[in-house]
Every structure is written in structure tokens, then in C-alpha cells.
Amino acid sequence: MHFAAKDVTCIRGDRLVFADLSFSLHSGDALVLRGRNGSGKSSLLRIVAGLLEPAAGSLSLDAVDRAADPDRFRDAVAYVGHLDPLKSVLSIAENLDFWWRLYGRQGTIDAALARFGLSDLATIPARYLSAGQRRRVTLARLFVAPAPLWLLDEPTTGLDTASIAALVAAIAEHRGGGGAVMVATHIDVDAPGHQTLVLDAGAAGGTP
Amino acid sequence: MNGFLTVLGHDVGLAYRQGGAALLAVAFFVVVVTLFPLGVGPESEILARISAGVVWTAALLAALLSLDRMFQADLEDGSLDLLAMSPVPMAAVVLAKCAAHWITTGLPLIVAAPVLAILMQMPIEGLPVLLASMLLGTPALSLLGGIGAALTAGIRRGGVLLSLLVLPLYIPVLIFAVAAVDASIGGLAARPHLLLLAAVTLVSSVIAPIAGAAAIRLALE
Q: What average pLDDT does the segment B52-76 reach?
């Protein structure tokens, strides 16, 4: 897999968030996004996820532009945003089951739950979960809707040290299996050999 | 098709697990209709004359009640992002959510309508056509409502705006449905009105998924 962003510009409202950002990711790579609040880390992840259109620039996967093959691009990314998309009346397993069905029934729910120590909570309605537990369920979704490029927006929010370690292990395993990761975070995530892209509000380009 | 059924099943299941949506709509429907005899008086002839219009107007308003949550709940918890990124086309997601709204709101209204029509002294010969008009017309309420719900998904307290957007779109449904019932009560053919009502629903089923999907894309930005 080779993902590339070229001269990507983001404008929100009338405000230039960032301009002319270029970077690339190969299988096994990790790109950590750094920057102040509002510098565009989340916007960049949403652009790569296809949820936001860039004001300028292009994105490509294996040298094929996203506009030429949006379906392939969509299938190649898995996105974890700020929010935890859980329905409070459904159990953890039922919440994951919905995404498992919608995203093509890959992986198994039991294995995904086990990755983040949620097996014992599988039948608990999501409304009884703590913020950290909700976050772990959201991360477990990466294993029932797998994709080569993970886009993680502040994935450690609310996690305890054991859960952060589980996430770090999951990222390492994903990279080892040929996947790549883009992660926006304010804390240090142990990802050996990662690149860092520093976004400064309104700045042209970043610091890869 | 699998994706459509998955979203449909999920939303119907959620509505019944959360409870209230169907009951609330039916309760509102009953309360609004029962207000009319109190307001216009108990004379059978007057009630019979306005029965079709009252039942249908109350149904329109009851259908509006749960529309605002059709996409807003998913937008607020981030589910809409994942739905938009899923292999299921957004238009199919919108159609599934409209179908789920109809199953959880429209169907209970159809079940309650004959009872309320009798309460309103509707002549017995009008009841089969009332049922037919509701079966043909209530899907259009969910479909047209889905467009409004998608347009207002990103707006806080968008319920009033949703009503202002959607109620004018409901006018053709109201006109053809009431005309069909009145025609049958008056001994005239209801079929032309029912066919026009079916046409409104068919056109809505084409327009709503496309317009709704476009509106959701805007809401996600």
C-alpha cells in the first residue's frame, strides 16, 4: 500500500486551516500528527477519511487518485474519530455486530472484544460503560471493520495505561501486518520509527 | 440490499428497544383527534364532515414528532461518519432510515386510524379508503420527512425548522388522501385520488434518498 497526499489545503468557514500539505505513507508506516488545538489534525484525518473535501490538492492510493476510484479508497481506510459511536440501549456485542454486518463481516466480534479486554462486558448495555470502556469498544471496531490505513483521532482519550498498551500493541501488529496508521494525539504513543507531521494553525505545509 | 436491511433492522430494533417513539406518536395522534369533538362540538354531521381531514392532519403532525432524531442521534454520536464511510451507499442508508421511521411510526398510526375515524363519526364506507390512503400516503410522510430531517440534522433545535420545511411538502399527500376518503363517503370514485397519492409516494421514494444523501454529506462537513 502506498498512500500519498499532495498539496492538500483545508479551509473551514473562511479560515485557512492548513495549506499545501504533502506526505506519504507506505505499508508499515506510522504518521503522528502534532499541533495545537485547531491546527487541523482532525480536519486532515476527516479529509483522508473522505468525510471532508479538501479545498485543494489530491489524495492517491497506489498512484490511483481518489476521484478515479473512491470505492477502493473508502475500503482502504478505517476511521476512529473523537466520538464513540455507541447506542446506549444496545450491548457492546450488539453495537459491534452492527458495524461488523455493515462493513462486510470480516474478523470476529469475540476476537475484537478480547483485544481490548472487553469479553466479560460483551452483554452489558453501552449506557453502563465508563468513558474509557466506551473508547475501548470504539477501538475494537477496528478489528470488525478492518482496513489497511487506520486513521485515529485522539485514540487514547479516557484510556488507562493498560488500554493504551493494548492500543500500542494493536498498532504495532497492524503495521507489522502491512498496514499503516495516521494518529493525531497530544500524548506520546509508542510507535517505533514513526514520522511526525507538525501542523501549525494557518501554516503552509507541515513538518514531516 | 444487505446493507439496506442491516440499517433498517438496526433502526427498527433501536426504536423498539428505546421504546416510546411509536407510543408517543400514537398517543399524540389520539390526543389531537380527541380534541376536535371538544372544540367543534359533538354534532355527528359536523364531525363526520371533517373526520377525514382531522384524522389525516393529526397523522401528519404525529409523523413529524420523531423525525428530528432520524439522523441527529447518529450525527451526535459519530455513527453518521461511519455510515457515510461504509460500503452501503448513503442513499440506501437514507431510504432504510425512512423505512424504519415508517415501520415504527407510520404503521402504528395506520392501526390507530380506524378507531379514531369511528370516534370522529366517519361513515363506515369511508374506513376502507381511509386505510388504503394511509397505507399509500404515510410512506411519503416518512420519505419527505427524511429530506427535512437530513437538512436539519446539523442544526441545534432544528425541530421547528424541520416542521416549516416538511409541512408544505406534505400538502399534496393531505389533499389527495382526504379527497379519496371524502369521495368514497360521497359515493364517488376514490381510485383517481389514491393513484395520485401512490404517485406522490413513488416520486418521494426516488427523490428522498438522493436529496437526503446530499444533505447528509453537507451536514458531515
A: 93
Q: What is the rounded distance in angstroms from the CA atom of residue A174 to the CA atom of residue B53?
A: 61
Alpha-carbon gap: B198 to the closest alpha carbon of chain A (Å)? 31
Average pLDDT over every residue of A157-165: 91
DSSP character string of A10-74: EEETTEEEEEEEEEEEETT-EEEEEE-TTSSHHHHHHHHHTSS--SEEEEEETTEETTT-HHHHH
Q: What is the dihedral of CA A76, A81, A87, A93, to 10 degrees?
A: 50
> Is A145 contained in some domain?
yes
**Could you give the number of structural domains in chain A?**
1
C-beta separation of A118 from A144 below 8 A: no
CA A116/CA A139 separation, integer angstroms: 8
Residue B18 vs residue B200, higher pLDDT? B200
Strand A149-153 to A180-184 pairing:
parallel
The enclosing domain of A95 has a CATH number of 3.40.50.300
Express each pLDDT in A52-74 by its tens digit: 999 999 999 999 999 899 999 99
Q: Which chain B residue's Cα is nearest to A82?
A: B78
Among B85, B90, B104, B221, most A C-beta atoms within 10 A, so best to mutate, is B85
Q: Is the Cβ–Cβ distance between A150 and A182 less than 8 Å? A: yes
For the record, the C-alpha cell of B124 comes out as 363506515
Name the phi and psi angles at B128, rounded to 5.
-60, -40
Instruction: Tell me the CA distances in angstroms from B31 to A48, A168, B53, one per residue in order.
Output: 50, 57, 15
CA dist A125 and A92 (Å) reads 6
Tell me whether A79 touches chain B (CB under 8 Å): yes
- Are the beta carbons of B95 and B209 closer than 8 angstroms? yes
Query: What ipTM was reported for this prediction?
Result: 0.90
How far is the C-alpha of A76 from the C-alpha of A70, rounded, in Å? 10
Asked if A84 lies within 8 A of B78 by C-beta distance, the reply is yes
Residue B38's domain spans which residues?
A: 2-220
pLDDT at A204 over 60: no
Q: How many domains does chain B have?
A: 1
pLDDT-based confidence at A191, cuts 50/70/90? confident
- Strand A149-153 relative to strand A77-80, pairing: parallel
Residue range(s) defining the domain that contains residue A157: 2-199
